[in-house]
Amino acid sequence: MHQPSLHLVAIMLLIPWPFSSVLLCAPVSVLVPGMRLTPDKTLTSDQGSFALGFFTPSNSTENAYVGIWFNDIPLSTVVWVANRDNPITDASSAVLSMTENSSLVLSETNGHHILWMAKTITGGNSSAKLLNNGNLVVLSSYGTMLWQSFENPSDTVLVGMPMRTTHKTHPPWRMISWKGPEDPSKGRFSVGNDLDTPLQSFVWNGSVPYFRAAVRNGYVSSNVGLQAVSPLMYLTIYMGTDGETYSTFGLSDGSSRIFYKVDYSGKTTIWRWNTSLTDWTLIAPWPAYRCNLYGYCGAYGYCDNTEAISTCKCLDGFDPSNKTEWVRGNFSHGCRRKEELQCGGEANFLT
Ligand SMILES: *[C@@H]1O[C@H](CO)[C@@H](O)[C@H](O)[C@H]1NC(C)=O
Ligand SMILES: *[C@@H]1O[C@H](CO)[C@@H](O)[C@H](O)[C@H]1NC(C)=O
Ligand SMILES: *[C@@H]1O[C@H](CO)[C@@H](O)[C@H](O)[C@H]1NC(C)=O
Ligand SMILES: *[C@@H]1O[C@H](CO)[C@@H](O)[C@H](O)[C@H]1NC(C)=O
Ligand SMILES: *[C@@H]1O[C@H](CO)[C@@H](O)[C@H](O)[C@H]1NC(C)=O
Ligand SMILES: *[C@@H]1O[C@H](CO)[C@@H](O)[C@H](O)[C@H]1NC(C)=O
Ligand SMILES: *[C@@H]1O[C@H](CO)[C@@H](O)[C@H](O)[C@H]1NC(C)=O
């Protein structure tokens, strides 16, 4: 186990370093050819917000993964996983490295068993760097971006991560849930945009739509749009240089400790780090998404997407079956015909 660390130090000496060697003990954010990241090591982004390394889900003793997590909070929160469907079974031999042919490769048993690879066009002298927004990038020696984790999402979207909503020249953008709370392998739920109406965002259960969000064409027609999702959070929609439409989200206070994910049960949630609670606080799940969940508005109810915030409404001639629950935002009771209520006797209303 000593050899890898000596190797690491030797390689670090080769990196152009703006300061004296005292800083060699500082966290490293870059992997260069020949450098090996072993399970006892992590890469840390330059300002310390994110780390990349090996992790083992808490209920697993054998399967390990390479992932990215928030580094500056005390709760383990994995936001990206490299080898989702190929867990490491022999951690003692697992290595993430930049190979001489410029591939970022995760392997075990002395490189004989390749578990995962960032697919890039061979460039020579490429390096991998963990950026402070949580994006792992592979850069050519000229600084060209060859690959990035932001374009290969797992189940989580971070601030500034582009979600492609059209697919003219790319395959459809998808993020895919974990299979279970402790199982990062690809689960049955995915999030992305519909192929026929690209501005219509869906969560799928396998290939079946599970719920859908409002069409956003009003924002895209003006090319750049800003939609307040909550007082804190905004969504930006823009046209990329490749002619595709993208959206990203951010917080109005500039904080990056927020994420949007689809969990193993198909729920999409947005979480924000709460410093005083030392925990994640759920900030509004996308309201439009919820409203469009099949059956969410109950019998004779529908999701009105023309409102600023989509909400359940009753069909004409119908009223909420249970007003108390409806006002609380529980629409599952649905609606019933107004006439039936009147038949029940007006006395009930007047008391
Ligand atoms: C982890 O294992 C324990 C004991 O088997 C079990 O009670 C718990 O539900 C598991 N947790 C998860 C998230 O699967
Ligand atoms: C780069 O090296 C890896 C591991 O040695 C190998 O699997 C892969 O095919 C190589 N890629 C290219 C483009 O040569
Ligand atoms: C990589 O960098 C080294 C040192 O700067 C140089 O000698 C070598 O030719 C480079 N290789 C490639 C493929 O660019
Ligand atoms: C997802 O689909 C499977 C298979 O059809 C079904 O058993 C499961 O209940 C669905 N999950 C949800 C949350 O609808
Ligand atoms: C933190 O949590 C507390 C208690 O739930 C809540 O009152 C407060 O608004 C939260 N702060 C943020 C920034 O989410
Ligand atoms: C409405 O729902 C609440 C809570 O489920 C229940 O206590 C109440 O009796 C219901 N009212 C009607 C009119 O069904
Ligand atoms: C909504 O009402 C139904 C029926 O009373 C109940 O089972 C369910 O737990 C309620 N949901 C919420 C979110 O309060």
TrEMBL record:
Signal peptide span: 1-21
Xref: SMART domains: B_lectin
Matching SUPFAM superfamilies: alpha-D-mannose-specific plant lectins (SSF51110)
Cited InterPro entries: Bulb-type_lectin_dom, Bulb-type_lectin_dom_sf, S_locus_glycoprot_dom
Subcellular location: Membrane
The entry's keywords: Disulfide bond, Receptor, Signal
PROSITE patterns in UniProt: BULB_LECTIN
Keyword Signal: yes
Pfam families on file: B_lectin (PF01453), S_locus_glycop (PF00954)
A biological process term (GO) from this entry: response to other organism
Residue stretches making up the Bulb-type lectin domain: 28-151
EC code: 2.7.11.1
Class of the enzyme per the UniProt entry, highest EC level: transferase
A GO cellular-component term linked to this record: membrane
Membrane topology (UniProt): Single-pass type I membrane protein
Protein name (Swiss-Prot/TrEMBL): non-specific serine/threonine protein kinase
Taxonomic lineage of the native organism: Eukaryota, Viridiplantae, Streptophyta, Embryophyta, Tracheophyta
